[in-house]
Structure formats: structure tokens, C-alpha cells
Amino acid sequence: MGKDKLRRFAEIDTFSNVFQMDAGKPFKGEWSTSVFKNNNPVVLELACGKGEYTVNLATLFPHKNFIGVDYKGNRIWRGAKTALEDGVNNVAFLRIQIENLIEYFAVGEVDEIWITFPDPQPPVKPRKETPYLASVFKHVQANFKTRRVY
Fold first, then answer.
1. What is the pLDDT of residue 139?
2. How far is CA 45 from the centre of its chain?
3. How many Å is the Cα radius of gyration of the chain?
4. What sign results for the dihedral spanned by CA atoms 80, 43, 133, 127?
5. Which of 17, 57, 112, 138 sees the fewest Cβ atoms within 10 Å?
6. Could you say which of 13, 22, 86, 119 is catalytic?
């Protein structure tokens, strides 16, 4: 593991806009009011990678709250750092496995879900019945009552 990667992992622990693993669970049903301190709609970008798209959407639409979701903290570091440096306050990042979304968001809490550039890699044990991304999409659709998935 490169030393930059280790440094970034340590640094995201100090970022106020990054919630890693269980740290995001207490906000279930309260992301807008507790994290963003408003009642604006919540938009998720799944598999956000470095978060550039998440930060740019947040800049373009200041009356929405954006949460980039990705498991790789080294990637999230870039978007989280940019948002903090640029003062973009309507963006946060959640470092979790996408399969666990229902543990972090209440039904009806998420207004839009974006899946823009997902990592096409399947889990170590590929599922025989459905490609990985399709199964994640079905899971998200079944557990979030939003009609807006992009």
C-alpha cells in the first residue's frame, strides 16, 4: 500500500464531511436535518469514486444535499477535500458497501439516486443469477421508494 494511500486514509478521519462505516448509521432518517442542517432533498451518487461529479452537482444545485457513496476511502478523499477547500457545504461522503444502504437511509429519505460511473468489478464470489450491478440496482429500487434513479 502506497504511503499516499495511508496518509489519505488517516486524513479522511479528520474530515467533517466524511462518514465511515458505522459513523453514518445514527443519521438514518435525519441526514438533511442533522448533517446538512436544512430540509433540502437528499441525492445519492452510488459508486462515486473520487467524488468530482458529486461535488460538481452540489455546486450546481445548492438547494439539494448530495451524498457520495463509495467503499474506497482513498478515492473519496479527493472529493471530500475539494468540497472542504471550496466551502461546498451541501455535500458529504459515506464510505460503505452499497449493499448496506438500507442501514443508513430511511424509506422516503432519498429523493434521487445517481449511478454514473460504477466500478464494473463483481464481488469475489460472483452471483450466478444476476450481474453484480443489476443486483445492486434491484436492491436499491426495492428498498428506496424514489422513482428517480439516474
1. 63
2. 5
3. 15
4. positive
5. 138
6. 119
CB atoms within 10 A of CB 92: 27
Asked if residues 107 and 145 have their Cβ atoms less than 8 Å apart, the reply is yes
C-beta of residue 7 within 8 angstroms of C-beta of residue 77: no
The angle formed by the CA atoms of residues 35, 14 and 11, to the nearest 5 degrees, is: 130
Known catalytic membership, residue 119: yes
